[in-house]
Amino acid sequence: MRFINDFLSLIFPRQCDACLQVLYRHEHWLCNHCRVRLPRGHYHLANDNELVRRMTGRADLQKASALFVFEKSGKVQRLLHAIKYKNAHDLAVHLGAYHANDLAATGYFNDIDVLVPIPLHPKKQRQRGYNQSACFAEGLASVLQKPVITDALKRTTHSGTQTKRNRFERWENVEGIFEVNSTALAGKHVLLVDDVITTGATIEAAWTVLHGAGAKVSVCCLAYARKRS
Questions:
Q1: Are 149 and 171 in contact (CB under 8 A)?
Q2: Closest by alpha carbon to 191, among 121, 156, 144, 127?
Q3: What is the spatial distance between Cα 79 and Cα 77, in angstroms, rounded to a whole number?
Q4: What is the pLDDT of residue 163?
Q5: C-alpha angle 193-197-199 in degrees, rounded to nearest 5
Q6: What CA–CA distances, in Å, run from 201 to 38, 107, 208?
Q7: DSSP string of 114-157, one letter each residue
Q8: Percentages helix, strand, coil for the chain, rounded to the nearest 5?
Q9: Run of H or E including 65
């Protein structure tokens, strides 16, 4: 079996999803260089962090964390592209567990009750075949040992891509697109999970309905695009 795997690796070499360099046998998903050098958020080291402050006045978050800092045309963007458009859903699960190990070491999210991923519209999920935020949540939950509820939050409108919209258009595009279809969240501390936070419009829209259902909300994402000064 090892001979077969070595032979296949010569024909179809495994690549780092961040830098596209060929992986060594002991490396998985990311090369060791990228694991060390990718821009990490480290927001879980402080409750009053930049991401929490970013949402002040828009969403009353308990806590917030992001694995990476998003940089346009950088390696983190390449990772997100692989996850969303190249069927690398296992990579999202892996990165969820990877980040959760850091979170567990500090006890940052020890008081959450459930994880709720930002849902895709059913049409989009059928096209893609999976929800990348749910995959990231699965990885987080495997370490944090908390349940994931994928049907508690429902996207009622197919809002389309946010990529080329400005800040106001993004907020307008997601306003009122979510509804809570479960009473199981009342009184719970929900960890809302997304792939990337840019303007925060999606998080604000989801927080509004979760808060209305009686839930406390924290946020965890794969990447966060810092506000430009």
A1: no
A2: 144
A3: 5
A4: 54
A5: 135
A6: 25, 28, 11
A7: EEEEPPPPHHHHHHHSS-HHHHHHHHHHHHHT--B-SSSEEE-S
A8: 40, 15, 40
A9: strand 64-69
- Residue 166's pLDDT is 53
**Sequence ranges of the domains in the chain:** 39-224
* pLDDT beneath 70, residues of the chain: 1-12, 158-173, 228-229
Structure-block tokens of residue 113: 């009750």
Q: How far is CA 137 from the centre of its chain?
A: 7
The token pair that represents 204 in the structure block: 């604000």
Architecture of domain 39-224: 3-Layer(aba) Sandwich (3.40)
Q: What SS3 state is found at 202? A: helix
- HSE-up of residue 170 (Cα within 13 Å, Cβ side): 15
pLDDT at 11: 52
Question: How many angstroms separate the CA atoms of 51 and 56, rounded?
Answer: 9
Model confidence, pTM: 0.89
Give the span between the Cα atoms of 132 and 118, in whole angstroms.
Answer: 9
Please give the torsion angle defined by the CA atoms of residues 82, 173, 130 and 148, in that order, rounded to the nearest 10 degrees. Answer: 110
| Residue 182 pLDDT | 73
